[in-house]
Specification:
- With 149 residues, the chain is mainly beta.
- It folds into 2 domains: 12-116, Pleckstrin-homology domain (PH domain)/Phosphotyrosine-binding domain (PTB) (PH-domain like), CATH 2.30.29.30; 119-148.
- 13% of the residues lie in helices and 46% in strands.
- The protein has one helix spanning 97-116; strands at 12-21, 30-35, 38-44, 50-57, 63-64, 67-68, 70-75, 78-84, 89-93, 118-122, 129-133, 137-139, 146-148.
- The chain has a 7-stranded antiparallel sheet with strand order 4-3-2-1-9-8-7, covered by helices on one side. Strands 5-6 form a two-stranded antiparallel ribbon. The protein has a two-stranded antiparallel sheet with strand order 10-11.
- Strand 10 (118-122) and strand 11 (129-133) form a beta hairpin.
- It starts with 11 loop residues before the first strand and ends with a strand.
- The model has no long low-confidence stretch (mean pLDDT 92).
- Bound molecules: zinc ion (ZN).
- The site of zinc ion (ZN) has 8 residues, from loops.
Amino acid sequence: MAKINLLDDEYIILKESGITPDLSMALATDEVIFTNKNIIYINKGFFGDNKKIDYFSLDEIKIIDGNVQAFEVEKHNLKYLEIDFQDRSLIFSFDRGASRQKWIEEITNLIKSKNDSKVTTKCITCGAQISGTRGQYAKCQYCKSEQIL
Ligand SMILES: [Zn+2]
């Protein structure tokens, strides 16, 4: 049985069972976990054992024109949540429709707040581009001077 591994600074935000994968006639036996780092998809076997665990990094979620790519799609007469990552997509359906909207909101909010804290500006000493986290010290890679962003 595969085990779920969380990083030291990783915590669970949402967790849901009764998940149906993107296949027609599939059983709603999978589980999905949304943490501050990943979306973890757990493919459950017939006897409830973890057959396959897939980690999708939140850093790879696509953002197009400022829109986080987590949205609703309709397939196999079911409503699914689709999340687009750099090289792949994750599509699954919830037992309860209300969860889908909640997941879209929570994922969107988390990604947006992560991005909002990133700042790119000019080094006050040499004028080179400098980036980092808002409110924290960043060191210019050219002149090595430090400033609060
Ligand atoms: Zn500089």
